[in-house]
Amino acid sequence: MGLTGGSKTIGNWTSLAKMDLYSRLNLPGFDGDLLTDPKQDLKDSTNLVEVQIILICAYCVIILLGLVGNSLVIHVVIKFKSMRTVTNFFIANLAVADLLVNTLCLPFTLVYTLLGEWKLGPVLCHLVPYAQGLAVQVSIVTLTVIALDRHRCIVYHLESKISKRISFLIIGVAWVGSALLASPLAIFREYFSIELNHDFKMVVCAEAWPKEAVVSYGTIYSISMLLIQYVLPLVIISYAYIRIWCKLKNHVSPGAGNDHYHQRRRKTTKMLVCVVVVFAVCWLPFHIFQLVSDIDSKVLDLQEYKLIYTLFHVIAMCSTFANPLLYGWMNNNYRTAFLTAFRCEQRLDSIHPEASPALKAKKNLEAKENLCNGSPFSQPTSV
What we know:
By secondary structure, the chain is mainly α. It contains 13 helices and 3 strands. It is found in: Cell membrane.
């Protein structure tokens, strides 16, 4: 089918064409009976008022937490000079990607789920799935870069040679590369209306991959993205953090000062591992369900296909607000910076003033050690 804004009728279509539309619309039980009473087979649990209220509450909580948390991360990295480290720039990049999902994807996805058809126009039809694919790819690339940089610094005792300028270059390349990988989600998309009978007409935003007798390009793309966007990066990240953890576990501290610094490295690594685990766990059900749906069209026959898809999508979207919570819980620098931002204060040391010049000198020394050894979080000199 070509891209069109006109009306499409299926009265004379063959069974293969009907099944093709059924698969692309994700409508359970799409058969000849739908032409007689189209609204009957379209009923599912997502049309129940109580289910819709739960979905509205879930999406609103995710959007609110994501907007507040990720905006706060970006704010403290930009505002406080002591937070402007290379890895914090990467973490801010994660926050930008999550904000993209919170603002451009989730509200429109919720509206689409509640209405049961696409009433948001052709531009958003192409833009919303593209933005989500772009954001997910940027996130996983950034997590991989962080893991590899820490692996190089900790396992091989190398100073981080990534300057701030290089980090911005890496972030730019990540966005450009992710934009190219996600582009099929916008290109192979159709916005059209179908008229099932004189009384029932619906507007559709659906995937429209080129079809050949043997090759299913949609399935090929889904499997490729699963490998590129999920499996391969997580294998690389897991390998990096396993080696890091073994190195830190076998560490023999020559002195109390170095031992304190070593403990901070372990805490930071633990936090970053938690970020990756949360991302992987949240997205795993959604990726599996998408892959199974592409490989076996019988999954689309499930009466509650739409509800299951929506629940897995909600779980995946939880990753968009989880990171700021992890930073505030597991990292003292972020927790202090968040509190400072909430109190509208200009300096990090305004919350916890130093008790003595000796303690301040010790903190300054630790901060210099962090910068020299490639630690991702420079301890603020006055915190």
